Amino acid sequence: MGKKVIGRRDFMKSTLAGFGGYFFLPRIDMKQEFRVVEAKGKERKFVYRTLGKTGIKLPVISMGVMNTDNYNLVRAALDSGMVMLDTAQTYRRGQSEGMLGEMLKGRPRDSYVLATKAHLPSDQKTGLYTEEATEDAFLKKVDTSLKNLGLDYVDIYYHHSVAKRESALHEPILKALEKVKKEGKARFVGITTHINEPEVIHAAVDSKIYEVVLTSYNFQQKHYAEVRSAIARAAGAGLGIVGMKAIRGGNRQTPTVKNTGAALKWVLQDPNVSTIVPGFTTFEEMDVDIAVAENPLLTNPEKNDLETVASASGLYCQGCRQCLGQCLEHLPIPDLMRAYMYTYGYRNLVHAQDLVLSLNLPQSVCEDCTSCPVKCSIGFDISSKIRDVVRLREVPTEFFG
Amino acid sequence: MQKRCLVKGLLCVSLILGFVGLQRASHSQEKTFTFPEVVGWRQSGEVQTFKPETLFEYINGGADLYLAYDFQELKVGEYSNEKKASVTIELYHHKTPTLAFGIYSQERLPGANFLDIGTQAYIEANVLNFLAGSYYVKISSFNTGPDDREILTAFAKKVSAALGEKGALPSILSSFPEEGKKKNSEKFISKNFLSYSFLHSAYTADYELSGKKFKLFIIEGLGRDDCRVMIQKYLQQTGRPVKDPVEGRYMLSDPYNGKVDLHWNGKNIWGILNESDTSLRSKYLDLFEAGLKKKISSD
Question: What's this model's pTM, rounded to 2 decimal places?
Answer without folding.
Answer: 0.81
